[in-house]
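Subgroup meeting minutes
Present: P.N., E.W., G.H.
Scribe: E.W.

1. P.N. recapped why we're keeping a running log of single-chain structure predictions: easier to compare across weeks, and new members can see raw inputs and outputs side by side.
2. G.H. added today's entry (276 aa).
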Amino acid sequence: MEPQLSHSVADGVATVVIHHPAKRNAMTADMWRALPPLLGTLADDPAVRVLVLTGGGGTFCAGADISSLRGSAGEAQGLAVRAEDALAAFPRPTLAAVRGYCVGGGCQLAAACDLRFTDERASFGITPAKLGIVYAASSTRRLVSLVGPATAKYLLFSGELIDAGRALRTGLVDEVLPDGELDGRVAEFTRILASRSQLTQAAAKEFADGRTDRDGYWARQAREGDDTAEGVAAFLERRAPKFTWTTSAPTSAPEETNRQAGRRVGSQDLARFREI
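Output recorded in log:
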């Protein structure tokens, strides 16, 4: 199989799969370039409520395919950082489903997702020190936000791999599943995510990622939208709620439209990656 990214959408869940079996799903330059526009397309699809990133076969991603990166190390790193940033900017919940190796650029992509579920046999590592590469500042900060400075330094200074148990203890992953149970748990959890309020999720994603200038905007969306009333009514009536707020709806305030033209959360940020 030629190195590629494939995707599918079913029941509100978009699944993006990294395929490069000859190199343990290492990302080629073309694959790095393809990821931002693919994410932009999925962000524009109103049927997509959750995104899962995973690897084909028995591994997630072993990093960058060095043999395909003919330019400078800086150019190669730039491709990886743009793909990582596009993934972090995706406007709906994202989950990395990890098997096998999650190393280098693969770990970079997993860290850019909102959540990471893994099987118990997975291995994680960030390896620029083995190549004499300065790890990008944005990627380093994202790693520190997940695992703290001490573990980030351990991973970056040494380039050593850690197992799934240690990844869980340090906060690099959120759940570790027994062998054979990862797919079922990911399917179960993404169904839960797809059933929840996109209003709550979108606001929480911005707040958790550190944005501090849109508190009033989200309060207004909650006040003017129907999700809160529907959630309370469904609870009292003991039924499943039918939330209607979506990230693709236009903003209601002119000042927000000027500052956040397009989509409410994140996909306007993806636009700058689509032509790369």
